[in-house]
Amino acid sequence: MIKNFFLTLSDLFYPQHCAACQKALREKEFLCEDCWNQIEPLSKPCCDICSHPLPNFDLKICNNCADRKIHFVAAVSAFHYRGLMQELIARYKYGRDQSLKPLLQQLIVKALKDERLCGIDFVAVVPVPLHFLRERERGFDQVLPLARQVAQFRNLALQSVLKRTSPTSYQAGSGREKRLYNLEGAFALRRATSLHGNYLLIDDVLTTGATLNECAKVLLQAGADQIWAVTLAR
Ligand SMILES: [Zn+2]
Ligand SMILES: [Zn+2]
Fold it and tell me: How far is Cα 69 from Cα 64, in angstroms, rounded to an integer?
């Protein structure tokens, strides 16, 4: 009886089927070997600031970062946002497939090994917020469980100090310029606070970096020293 109870609990945390292709698994893993092999880690050389892949090690930052004011020190991701990774994030985020949550939590932690994050003292982890209308529509905040996992792993507080004041930023295909423009003033502090020290921003995906940049700007304006960011994929 007791043994069955524990088996059920462990089955909950480690499903016996691959989360991506549903193939039965012998090991307690989230994905089968084939699916693990389809998730592509980001590798060096990449932009020091936004982690965009670069053609060689002589370059330190990408054209995109050279061209604009970046408010965060570095945005780190563990994986390419394409193929199976893109599919898994879409199933979780838009398809509301909560069974993928433990897998994605495990995957975001891999980004924390990046040397750019080593030895930095953070005050807290800050999730990039959803607009409340978007959250109501979706039924959950997809970033919060990722931020919670990072906070737990680095033994940091989770502080949801930001809010999204405009729901306009999810216009897929609206073009980079329009997206950047739309994000001006899209984030604010949830309540007036003065911040001190370094903060670690968490989002699911980095595309143009505009979201993280705006969030970092708000945190700096509130008194934060420096901002780093971690996303699952870019
Ligand atoms: Zn699989
Ligand atoms: Zn860059």
Answer: 10
